[in-house]
Amino acid sequence: MAVRLDPLELGKVIGEVVDRFVPTMVLSVRFGTKVLTNGCEIKPSVAVAAPAVQIGGGVGDLFTLVMIDPDAPSPSEPSMREWLHWLVVNIPGGADPSQGILLVVPYMSPRPALGIHRYVLVVFQQRAPAPAVAPGEEAPGVRAGFRTREFAKEHGLGLPVAAMYFNAQKEPASRRRRY
Question: If 110 and its partner were Cys, which of 45, 104, 156, 168 is the partner (CB 3.0–4.6 Å)?
Fold first, then answer.
């Protein structure tokens, strides 16, 4: 009998980013036509714009979406772990992040400088609406050293209800032909 490993454990998302949890919501993520699966590789050039994200849930449910890079600036020395790439709150159940309070922290595309980086999207169910934040209002230094667990605890979010991760690495510089 084969043992099925959870891809989030295999990718060390559980342990390094979040504690073990039981997914209770459906999370669908895609960049253009590329539908993400845990551990798939995405070229940074494909992820320049924010992904299309669909979160399950019903009317009255609210969610928080966090996207981080736990491998910044490099997987062997992640001294900026976790680098916050995106934070959206008050996303209605069954909706995408564009229907939440956008730009609590605006989307920043993957920019891995060295090695293969994991980019983790974590969804938390909110118990109540979060207070409004002006779009783009961002405290200096909020991206480097973000802590998903601490953020969830601070805001009473509990364990995640869904998570997914993808890998990206620096693309080679384009080579131009000179005639």
Answer: 168
Query: What are 93-144's pLDDT values in tens digits?
Result: 988 888 776 568 899 999 999 999 999 999 999 999 887 655 445 555 689 9
Contact 77, 140 (CB under 8 A): no
53 touches 29 (CB < 8 A): yes
pLDDT per residue as tens digits for the range 55-102 = 999 888 999 999 999 999 999 999 989 999 999 999 999 888 887 765
CA gap 79, 58 in Å, rounded? 39
Using CA atoms, how far apart are residues 119 and 31, in angstroms rounded to an integer? 13
CA distances from 116 to 41, 56, 101 (A): 9, 30, 31
Q: Do the beta carbons of residue 164 and residue 12 sit within 8 Å?
A: no
Both structure tokens of 10 = 């295999």
